[in-house]
Automatic annotation (TrEMBL):
It comes from the Eukaryota. This is argininosuccinate synthase. One of its GO terms (molecular function) is argininosuccinate synthase activity. It comes from Aegilops tauschii subsp. strangulata (Goatgrass). Residues 1-134 form the Arginosuccinate synthase C-terminal domain. The lineage of its organism: Eukaryota, Viridiplantae, Streptophyta, Embryophyta, Tracheophyta. Keywords: Amino-acid biosynthesis, Arginine biosynthesis, ATP-binding, Ligase, Nucleotide-binding. SUPFAM superfamilies: Argininosuccinate synthetase, C-terminal domain. Pathway: Amino-acid biosynthesis; L-arginine biosynthesis; L-arginine from L-ornithine and carbamoyl phosphate: step 2/3. Its EC number is 6.3.4.5. GO terms for biological process: argininosuccinate metabolic process; L-arginine biosynthetic process; urea cycle. Homotetramer. One of its GO terms (cellular component) is cytoplasm.
Length: 142
């Protein structure tokens, strides 16, 4: 890879971390079960800044310590088991489970209606799309 160094020059480097790749894939799969969408988005955004701090040698920076506290809090329930298949440098998930999984088949089937009622979606879609409708009305001069 060609990377941008902190001092502004570009350099070439080769990094091989098969163990890290496997571990990252497994953790990511557990997070997909145990974290909600917005928390995952914030975690991903902070991960980039975290990597910059560490790369720049700012390990003892108060910001990095605060980010650690955030990550520890949001991943407190990220535990379980993941089965991966490894083949010619690729990692494929075969199964995953967690006692803290946010996935519930009784909700995600959309057919039962006991917890999730499809009729609720109509009002939500109308409300969620309100900013887009207002912009369209503005553009039409309404």
């Amino acid at each position: 890879m060609v990377e941008n160094r902190l001092v502004g020059m570009k350099s070439r480097g080769v990094y091989e971390t098969p163990g890290g790749t496997i571990m990252a894939a497994a953790v990511r799969e557990l997070e997909s079960l145990t974290l909600d969408r917005e928390t995952m988005q914030w975690k991903d955004m902070l991960a980039l800044k975290y990597a910059e701090l560490v790369y720049a040698g700012r390990w003892f920076d108060p910001l990095r310590l605060s980010m650690d506290a955030f990550m520890e809090t949001i991943t407190a329930t990220t535990t379980g088991s993941v089965t991966l298949k490894l083949y010619k440098g690729s990692v494929t998930v075969a199964s995953r489970k967690s006692p803290y999984s946010l996935y519930r088949e009784d909700i995600s089937s959309f057919e039962n209606g006991e917890i999730y009622d499809q009729a609720d979606a109509e009002g939500f879609i109308r409300l969620y799309g309100l900013p887009t409708r207002v912009r369209a009305m503005l553009e039409k001069g309404i």
